[in-house]
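Hi everyone, sorry if this is the wrong subforum. Our group has a chain we'd like a structural model of before ordering constructs, and none of us has done structure prediction before. Sequence below.
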Amino acid sequence: MAYINTTNFANDGKIGVDFTKTYASCSAGSTSFPPCMPGDRIRGSNASDWMFVRAESEISAYNLCGIAVYADSASTTPVPRAAPVTTTTIAPGGVAGVAPILGIAQTNIPSSYYGWIALEGSLLQVTAAASSNPKLPLFTTSTAGVVSSSTVSAGYIQGLTLLTSAASASAPNCMARAMGIITSNPV
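Answer:
Right subforum, don't worry. Here is the predicted structure as tokens:
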């Protein structure tokens, strides 16, 4: 029987990286300074790839998020910012912009905090609508951060596969590889 590690951890040699930890600030005056900078990417166990981002709104564990790089009125330095996506926000002209980077939060990240979003991995979890089935195309929904295997006309998520079913609204195991949104239905 093969051993499967069910915990994601950094394995690229970067000291102090904890994918479950969040940080209130990345400024030099912070009392809890992160071991990386916004936009840094770290390889992890279970064929995972992670990006350090700022949460633009509350992100719940296992939410599908869009990541876009931009500055705001508080900072003129562009940084990667993440927010849970919906079919409306991911559409061309939506708040998330056209073709943002997609990732899945594996821990809660409070609004305006910094934390890690998984861009790829073979042992992740994603929030799925009730009755979503494994190995079927997945789509964004009207609920922020939630995916569904129910066919819709837009918001097809390329590169994301559920490995188990979601009997009720839950966070089943999934596999993510080079995720992207295709705005029209490919099915």
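For your construct planning: The two ends are 37 Å apart (CA to CA). Confidence is low (pLDDT under 50) at residues 1-5.
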